Amino acid sequence: MSGNSFGVLYCVTSFGESHGPAYGGVVDGCPPGLELSAADLQRELDRRKPGSSRHVTQRRESDSVEILSGVYEGRTTGTAIGFLIRNEDARPKDYSAIAEKFRPGHADYTYWQKYGMRDARGGGRASARETVVRVAAGAIAKKWLRSRYGVVIRGYLAQLGPRKIPFRTWDAVEGNAFFAPDSDMVPALEKFMDELRASGDSVGARVNVLAEGVPVGWGEPVYGRLDSDIAAAMMSINAVKGVEIGAGFACIEQKGSEHGDEMTPEGFVGNNNGGVLGGISTGQDITVSLALKPTSSIRRPRRTVDVRGNATTIETTGRHDPCVGIRATPIAEAMLACVLIDHALRHRAQCGDITPPLRFAKLPSGG
Amino acid sequence: MSGNSFGVLYCVTSFGESHGPAYGGVVDGCPPGLELSAADLQRELDRRKPGSSRHVTQRRESDSVEILSGVYEGRTTGTAIGFLIRNEDARPKDYSAIAEKFRPGHADYTYWQKYGMRDARGGGRASARETVVRVAAGAIAKKWLRSRYGVVIRGYLAQLGPRKIPFRTWDAVEGNAFFAPDSDMVPALEKFMDELRASGDSVGARVNVLAEGVPVGWGEPVYGRLDSDIAAAMMSINAVKGVEIGAGFACIEQKGSEHGDEMTPEGFVGNNNGGVLGGISTGQDITVSLALKPTSSIRRPRRTVDVRGNATTIETTGRHDPCVGIRATPIAEAMLACVLIDHALRHRAQCGDITPPLRFAKLPSGG
Amino acid sequence: MSGNSFGVLYCVTSFGESHGPAYGGVVDGCPPGLELSAADLQRELDRRKPGSSRHVTQRRESDSVEILSGVYEGRTTGTAIGFLIRNEDARPKDYSAIAEKFRPGHADYTYWQKYGMRDARGGGRASARETVVRVAAGAIAKKWLRSRYGVVIRGYLAQLGPRKIPFRTWDAVEGNAFFAPDSDMVPALEKFMDELRASGDSVGARVNVLAEGVPVGWGEPVYGRLDSDIAAAMMSINAVKGVEIGAGFACIEQKGSEHGDEMTPEGFVGNNNGGVLGGISTGQDITVSLALKPTSSIRRPRRTVDVRGNATTIETTGRHDPCVGIRATPIAEAMLACVLIDHALRHRAQCGDITPPLRFAKLPSGG
Amino acid sequence: MSGNSFGVLYCVTSFGESHGPAYGGVVDGCPPGLELSAADLQRELDRRKPGSSRHVTQRRESDSVEILSGVYEGRTTGTAIGFLIRNEDARPKDYSAIAEKFRPGHADYTYWQKYGMRDARGGGRASARETVVRVAAGAIAKKWLRSRYGVVIRGYLAQLGPRKIPFRTWDAVEGNAFFAPDSDMVPALEKFMDELRASGDSVGARVNVLAEGVPVGWGEPVYGRLDSDIAAAMMSINAVKGVEIGAGFACIEQKGSEHGDEMTPEGFVGNNNGGVLGGISTGQDITVSLALKPTSSIRRPRRTVDVRGNATTIETTGRHDPCVGIRATPIAEAMLACVLIDHALRHRAQCGDITPPLRFAKLPSGG
Questions:
Q1: Which of the two ends of chain B, N or C, has the fewest CB atoms closer than 10 A to its terminal CB?
Q2: What is the ipTM of this complex?
Q3: Measured distance CA(D246)–CA(D258) in Å, rounded
Q4: Cβ contacts (< 8 Å) between C331 and chain D: which residues?
């Protein structure tokens, strides 16, 4: 399979460039009979939308989605679901100044060298605007997972640059522009972002995402592990440089007696494993954490080379997110949803005749 | 594709269980004409072999590999390369005591629930012994990458539990049982492991792995990114709970002006991106870091349930590595090699007619 | 991979229904740098277009294609090429009479039973109108194959119902509505079709398609054979019930001394093998022949059942092709082109360093 | 996926050469809990075995199969099933005379040109002996299909060279060396073969294969059609040059009113469609017909070229089947079984929640 599709049975194909006519996608393999309308996709797209606060890019896009196929009389038919999101505020001319240079930390250089050419309008195909397709595809996955299995997928901003944001309550997350799980921290985050924006610089972030209600048994050993596919999905999001499942890097310093989550008839005690053992879901919450690097398009002069290899400097004045992590929460949720539906389908394909032999007195939980 | 294969064009398929008759694999897609013998695979297998020091499992396996196809008169023919490694020191009876219980932190429980049954002899398919297949497949990949492109792949143990092992020299790595890059630290590591083993507990580790000499342009946007495939490959290794590329999680606190590696006519200044931008190799070193959790089979009593869901306790007395990270270096190298050859082939498929337009005065390096 | 995509490296994804808003597709993996515009796709789409003669469906569609991505400044960028063809003459009401019944020989019944529902507007996803996507994707493949390797792909109608149309000249093919290779036969074909149309019945056809100039070496043993992938591609075209390569079914009665094409320094003597041996191209013409069944939507009363399983009769009065074979030539060409580009890329991925050791005095030909 | 694997969810990977140490395969994705032993595979392998009559190759192979993984206590575990068949009667020296020349009609030439080298011992990887892997993998598929769905897959020799063998009774098929469905014809077939063998020539054949009991709904539109995957599977068998589903090429001359199988509350009337409509199974018998070309290794002098391109002649004196069609029946059955189980799994993955809304008064049958 080529690089613009992912998923084995719930297969998402994506196309589009930042300043071309449109983005679009195809979701293949969605089960039939799911109630679905453009509004289901739009709701998630609006969460990711640019221009929704002063802390993100000021590009004005309604991100209106049109479903072109695969839905009939309000329900999915089981055939390919095509959808389209027209670009409305494309300004390719903004980029003429940088078409001949490479932004440090950006894919400008690698596309140029790989393909012998590049679409220099914004990031072209490398733009994070491509994530509209992921969010739309994820919205369908989320809806099916919730209606079929009661799976709930949600995430939050866990760190903004140096500022850690400890989890306090899901109620806060949708009430602020940062997806921060603590409303009390929002003023400080706003102040931090205002100063950052004024400085012309950018910063990294950490996003955590969870799936609750995943049944035991999803995931395929040994290369098709659930956590392996989650890692791939997350690392494919623009700017992601690190992925953790469960205890993640903290497991290095743990002892086995501390890390291995004990079991009782009431379920697991602790969730260091992040809901995955041997690549297969345990029935606990799936917990994932991502590191997103700071945006490479910044308003500060930096050394670079031009397309002929000569030394020069660059600063980027287009409309950019000073922290791509701020809008990353719905994207990470979408990718997790797409991986989970894919494995839900793969699992029932192979093990559709199996009833898990062991039922806990209580449903297993993250303890 | 099902879960026991990976790779698009350099496709590795694996089979075998810890206490079954044999492990084996098939490498499909290897270019023809590569000089290859069983000795090439054996050399890497010997680096991963159990029983080579007192710090690892005492299972005695020669891990002798037999090539069954795909090589004729000492060279690869372009057809599927099948290979076989017989298990010699299988002791399935060792496990009768734990066949009815689940080891905390182990895949025992998830296999049981997913498949409605499990091969309880050791970890069955979930055993880390499966990595013999990866190492053999990686040996072929490594050899081709080196002979065709001069790519060198190597790794080292960067942390053992709480003990960080700063990189000092490659010369040290093959000279000790830990793959530690600093001989002076070995006595301390040995002491640490002796105490750990005596305590019956286990510990996590960090392994770093690098690829030097990778040309610019390998990797496919947007889901088939080189770093996405590396993340999947690494997270599919038993016990891995976190993956970083380049600066990894440190990028969260970096500013864009600090993270984005500047460029000069002499190449990149710094390598925060770990040799990948936009999912495509930059020509710098590819740098990857993994977190491995502590082994779940430990000689300490732990709460668990049995296959009927009743509370019980377990302690594992079989032969196990108290730190799987110690033998993980050749495995991580192998997985990186398999991903890189796959992308080398994918790149020349699509872009075989492209010459990278920009040649640096010097070859780009990690600075 | 799910059912709406095909191809490993040149991967085509399709969506759309006969009476929905649009058809569209995504071509992933096209090499960068190919000159391409919507006109290149439109030229092929116009060859397949409905309503172009009285012998085909009278549905009025311009089949205007819009390229949405993957092309920049007139050349492919190497990223996914998305394209869209809006339906203009959809008349879903035409089908209300048949929404509750199954047309004999049509996919109505199987979709209903598989998915528990169906889009009853025309054939929905099962409509042969889906082949617009194939033709558009094939146009790109054809252009690349021609410009990069000089491969020429073309086909013709070889039989219309009982009337065989022996090959006479390529010059005739584009000059009549049947893609018949003999202008002199056209009046008889027209008379046959006029009578058939008046009778309300339909008829089958045979289409032959060839690729000239394919280099030796494309195709992968043993399951990824070139002829295996061609067979799959052809059999996936609506109404196709049989596929032959080279001598096809005639080989049953051949002796080995007759069938096996001898070789001389001037090339092959004969082409019984249709340009493929052991699944790999020989350098001769690739020759393929298809059987297309008669259209199932006919204006003649037939016994069937309704969606509740009760006996009833049906006759179909919508706009339909009385012989789908008439417009099948460009579709078969497109599918052959897609398979060939896929294998061209796969071949150079694995064997990019190989020069075929033997050069014939003359280029091998079909003799 | 590379060329030595096939199937999406029931994925078969194959390796081995005619005169190398062994053939082997990996079946990935088999549902857990299936009773399975080596004897199940052996039974099918024995049906295909060489040397079982004077009409086939006299190579003496027991084709003993060893299962290496994926089965525990007599049942499949859901993990990869690896198996091995050692070559016992390899005589690589037999081929030294032809190592420098190409057999007309054989893959010798294309392998040589594709890979720049070839394993000249017998056909190497191109040998039809590779079909042992298919038969072993198909045996597992057959067993699961039969036990889970009552699907019965069987085939027969329908034509041997010019001699048509009309179907008379399944009872005859296993009682003669030809898989002929009419015992009375066997003496004539034997006489024909004795004369053919004496002449040093070879001949083609037709094999028909059926699957009875396949439920409605298997197969994925539009490229992942059941008939498309069947066509690919059959065309991948050595020597196959044509594939038909249902009426096959006879549909060309049929009228729609004749071809389209009418439906009544008792089921379908006729089975021109061969059990597939719109790429999805109808619940009728799946009927497939194959054309196999005459063996290219014959004892008659033929014109060819040597590896330097010089004119020469060749005649092949090794041990070969004068008609590969004679042993092709179990192979075709195996391929059909592998495709069907793959689609059974794919169907329940996507449509596992769907009950076919329409139940016929009687089970649909081929009428």
A1: C
A2: 0.97
A3: 13
A4: none
